[in-house]
Amino acid sequence: MNTIAENIADFLKEYPPFDNLTFQELAVIATNIRVLNLDKNETLFQIDDKLHDSFYVVASGTIHLSVIADAEETLLNKCHAGDVFGLRPFFAKNNYMMTAKSRDESIIYAIPIATFRPFVANNPDVLNFLLESFATNTWNPKEKENLRGKLASDNVFYIGQKSEMQYFQSLTYNRSPLIATINQTAKDVAYLMTENVSSSVVICDNHLPIGIVTHTDMCSKIATGQFPLTVTMKAIMSSPVVTVVENISLAEAQLMMLKNNVTHLCVTSDGTDKSPVKGVISEHDLIIAQANNPGVLIKEIKRSSSAKDLKNLRERLTELIQNSINKNIPLSNINNIASEINSALLKRAVELSILDLGSPPARFVWLSIGSQGRKEQLLLTDQDSMLIFEDVAPDKYRDVRDYFLRLGKKTTATLEKVGYELCPNGHMASNMLWCKSLTDWTKQYNSWMNTPGENSNDLSSIFFDLELVFGEKKIFEAIENVIEKDLEHNSLFFDFLGNDALRKNSPLTFFKKFALEEDEPHKDKFDIKTRALMPLIDGARLFALHFKIKGLNNTYLRFKQLAIIDSKNADIYLNCAEAFLILSKFRVNEGLKNENSGQYINISELNKLDREKLKNALAPMRDLEELIKSNFKLTQFS
Hints:
This protein is of the alpha+beta class and 638 residues long. Helices cover 46% and strands 15% of the residues. The strands form 6 sheets. A 4-stranded antiparallel sheet has the order 1-8-3-6. A hairpin with a 2-residue loop joins strand 10 and strand 11 (208-214). Helix 13 (307-326) runs antiparallel to helix 14 and helix 19 (528-546) packs across helix 20 (555-565). It is globular. The N and C termini lie far apart (85 Å).
């Protein structure tokens, strides 16, 4: 080994995943590495470039990874010495989805994928590093001081949270694969593949897979004249075939192809070649599946130009949620991803309205309230929003307000076309009551807060579940300050909220049976929203405000934080957090099944185990109720 290769091997052994390889293995890799010297601001690859035959490690200098969104360049990652990037050729066949450019003079090691692939396939630690990094699909610069050589993903995945979604994302693939026997000829099988527009055929013996023949095999072995058309499948098939289970995820399938250096996977009943064939997964299926990952959805939302586009993307989000639930991803993770995509949809709807109406005459904020404000809107429930604009001169007020009312009406109409129904209570920015200047809104808010008994819970507690969707952050901060200031020493309002949290009808009857609706159109169904979820939502909000928890609107996260702050009651909060996720999952499943809000559960359709699970999830509500009674004076609003 020459001196340069030895120095490269010495460098690589200090960083993952190379620290899992022996020096002899690193020596083999190092001798095949190309050393690249990049000038300042030199581009190594850019969006839509064809994939290179190598991936890259930063030896010195800094590499910036960026994407273009809405004609603006967004910096995703900064790669320093030891960081790995440009791994897209390992996992996909489509072009690069980001740009890699040197921030300063840099030295880069280009490692040929053909050289490195055997070490990935044969070393579980190296494979696990790539698996975990690919599954996470994020890179947090704040972790830099604690992590050396962290892989920087070059997928468009920049929504702020770490996500297991990509790893668990389900696949759509051919579930009616072509089957042939070892004695069928190439000519017969070629006709079969052509007629069925298929890129592969599984070769079976006694209904069990023993090999596979692909379009590539036909081109390289038959079309070249290497074998005659009369040759049987036994001579040209790839064997043994790589088999996988039916519910394999996108990332797992990609890594199986990588590990075995194949372009097709055979799906069988038990994942082995000892059970019947259920389908075939191709590289093309993986590329198609990537179009539904969260990062790509957000990118397409930003480029959308109509309500129809947004509706199609919202439908793809529903598919993503359904697949994620089928894969048993924790609901809290699904909420994180879905809320970001929902926010992107809402923001784009506002942007499209502005493009149509012209530039706003004043600064403003568009706020989500209700379930989206809590980052809990997995289903297409009704829309809840507020629009607050900065104070303007009296002579301009009417024109400014009229513009924002038009903006509110146009945006809510767009969202209705997307599938978000109009709020039956009128809690929308298209309503004058919810579209005001900052001063007018403050006056209205103070009035509601100081006379809580005269106003419904909808008009009071709803302000504490706010999310900024679009607009001026300083206005949003001013709103938060108004709310925070008004809560100080306002024991009357806390007592009102406590009483209101207990006003919901009990979910169970005196005989511990589900309290079902007595009137049509939901007769004999269980209202899981009103009787089960809302008491938990109200309780979490009440105690979060009581303990001055800021920056957390999500019910599950509120309970988790309460368990830390109020440790003596931690068990109650943690049980409520778990109950909230269980009940939410029941509602989401009901909504996805019936394509509605999932509010009313048909108990008779649940099996015995699910009925017990649902009933058990209601148990923590009793402890939460007692905790509210012991902390707040409730008599004056009874």
